[in-house]
């Protein structure tokens, strides 16, 4: 490990600090107070949780999604004499993401809502720790151009993409000639062995009970449908510049091997670790160095086995039909990935609100893709307009299918 003495602290903005990724990021940073300074935090509605973070880390700025929540937080900060300046709204989050004093941005806002701030951080040349896969799923080539033009350093935080990144040569120019395929692993979620004929009875609480990972409700449902893996396939295509046909998914129930790279000579390099997001977070914060993450170490002697299942086996294709949509939209018109993302967000929200059944999430996604013929987006406004159009179509599908 390189000597860090004498180096200035990284000033970090955590967008989505009250979610599971944001909380884990703060836990990792708290282990290294000599290396990192919390400059700004943002949250949607959890005032008291953000207040507790402000008390502990004393950021210069805190942002709430709404004026009312920001006013509540500001009053509580004032009573406690905290130095934190409280702001509100999406524009404030974008301003924080590109602030001249920020070195690193942890992009952990769930869904398309995080796209604008990711673009701002990219254009400002930040070290961008991307936990929001939707920035690439929705933004695609447009987002990548912002990264290139801004001189940003894009570091994946999803455990699978971090694993791939750690398994690749440091020199990205070697990737096209050396990579044969990228193999993303999937746990299979809570319904890996459940009879698909019973999927109509699945409740939100059952869908959110992941066997290995502790995650928010939306991403937990995505894991249960394996739409999270569909989005990860799309993200991997853009992150690593491979063709869709070079991306494979295998089910690995133990979640120990986080993903693999198979090279032209058929050797395979994999990254292993406990199912703890602090590992990829610590790697993103410290890259190209490594530092302690606070995660438990693997105990190989306690592992009964490491097993793998093909998506064509055990009825998985019927159980997880949404996964195949990843390759479909990557081969379709530009913007189709954004349509799928918007449809899925609406469908998952409707399921969590018990307005549609679990097995209807895929139906909403299919109906939305059939209803929208996207034009290639050339601006943030184009992307947001396509997102809004897709959500309207998805909401109409939900209304038609509603329980």
Can you describe this structure in just a few lines?
With 403 residues, this protein is of the alpha/beta class.
Beta-strand proportion = 5-15%
Strand order of the largest sheet: 4-3-2-1-5-6-7
Q: Kindly state the mean pLDDT as a whole number?
A: 93
Characterize the overall form. Answer: globular
Q: What descriptive keywords fit this protein?
A:
17 helices; 403 residues; alpha/beta
Characterize the structure shown.
With 403 residues, the chain is of the alpha/beta class. Helix content is 44%, strand content 15%. The protein contains 17 helices and eleven strands. The strands form two sheets. A seven-stranded parallel sheet has the order 4-3-2-1-5-6-7, sandwiched between helices. α11 (227-240) packs across α14 (325-331) and α15 packs antiparallel against α16. The longest helix has 22 residues, at 380-401. The chain is globular.
């Amino acid at each position: 490990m390189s000597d860090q003495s004498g180096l200035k602290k990284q000033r970090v903005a955590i967008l989505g600090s009250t979610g599971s990724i944001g909380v884990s990021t703060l836990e990792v940073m708290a282990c290294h107070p000599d290396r990192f300074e919390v400059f700004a935090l943002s949250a949607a509605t959890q005032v008291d949780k953000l207040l507790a973070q402000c008390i502990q880390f004393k950021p210069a700025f805190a942002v709430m999604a709404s004026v009312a929540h920001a006013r509540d937080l500001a009053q509580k900060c004032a009573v406690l004499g905290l130095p934190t300046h409280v702001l509100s709204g999406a524009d404030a989050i974008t301003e924080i993401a590109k602030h001249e004093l920020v070195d690193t941005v942890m992009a952990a806002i769930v869904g398309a809502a995080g796209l604008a701030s990711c673009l701002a951080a990219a254009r400002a040349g930040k070290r961008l720790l991307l936990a929001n896969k939707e920035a690439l799923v929705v933004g695609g080539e447009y987002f990548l151009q912002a990264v290139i033009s801004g001189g940003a350093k894009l570091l994946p935080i999803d455990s699978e993409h971090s694993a791939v990144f750690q398994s690749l040569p440091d020199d990205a120019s070697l990737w096209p000639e050396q990579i044969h395929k990228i193999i993303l692993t999937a746990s299979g979620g809570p319904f890996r062995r459940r009879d698909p004929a019973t999927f109509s009875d699945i409740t939100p609480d059952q869908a959110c009970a992941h066997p290995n990972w502790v995650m928010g409700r939306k991403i937990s449902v995505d894991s249960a449908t394996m739409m999270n893996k569909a989005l990860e396939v799309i993200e991997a295509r853009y992150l690593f510049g491979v063709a869709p046909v070079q991306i494979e998914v295998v089910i690995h129930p133990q979640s120990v091997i986080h993903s693999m790279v198979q090279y032209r000579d058929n050797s395979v390099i994999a990254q292993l670790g406990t199912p703890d997001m602090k590992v990829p977070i610590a790697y993103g914060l410290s890259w190209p160095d490594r530092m302690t993450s606070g995660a438990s170490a693997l105990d190989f002697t306690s592992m009964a086995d490491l097993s793998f299942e093909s998506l064509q086996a055990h009825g998985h294709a019927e159980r997880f039909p949404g996964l195949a949509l990843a390759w479909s939209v990557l081969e379709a018109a530009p913007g189709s990935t954004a349509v799928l993302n918007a449809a899925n967000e609406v469908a998952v929200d409707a399921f969590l609100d018990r307005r549609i059944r679990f097995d209807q999430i895929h139906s909403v996604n299919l109906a939305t893709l059939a209803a929208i013929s996207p034009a290639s987006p050339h601006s943030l406004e184009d992307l947001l307009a396509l997102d809004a159009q897709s959500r309207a179509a998805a909401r109409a599908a939900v209304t038609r299918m509603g329980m």
